[in-house]
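#structure-requests
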Amino acid sequence: MSGRKGSTKEGEKSEKSTKSRVSYKVKAEECQKKLKKANKEIEELKERLLRRVAELDNYRKRTEREIANIIQNANENLIKDILPVVDDLERSLKISNSGEDDVEFRKGVELIYQKLMLILGKYGLEPMESVGTEFDVEKHDALLQISKKGTPAGVVVEEHEKGYLLNGRVLRHAKVVVSK
């Protein structure tokens, strides 16, 4: 009987070791699956993080551009309000009187006009040249069309009110007469 018990014990050990190997194999496979799942989740989280970082960077850049644009055009309303004064100065310079006192007065007005335009130019204001250029709806308001010999159709022939750009954008459209 002792022989039988010994062989049973050996069989049990052999069976236990086989079960242990199978159990370890199953556990190893489970661990591999969990590891793959965890690695996949890590990659997804990395991608989400990279997207968030890119979104944040784009937001920062867009905000910086908007702030720069606001700063650049902060004086737009003030300059619009000053343009009629510039127009009046230009009109007064077009009037020519022959008296000596008028010459000195004209020089004074010219000096004021030049200084004002210099100051406004520092803030990005620039006059548009319209006469002789092709009519552009983005820059001009047509008051009327006239026939003018030697001028092709669609060309600005007169300017009634000067147009201005502020930092490259149209601040005020030029009011013009166009050839037909």
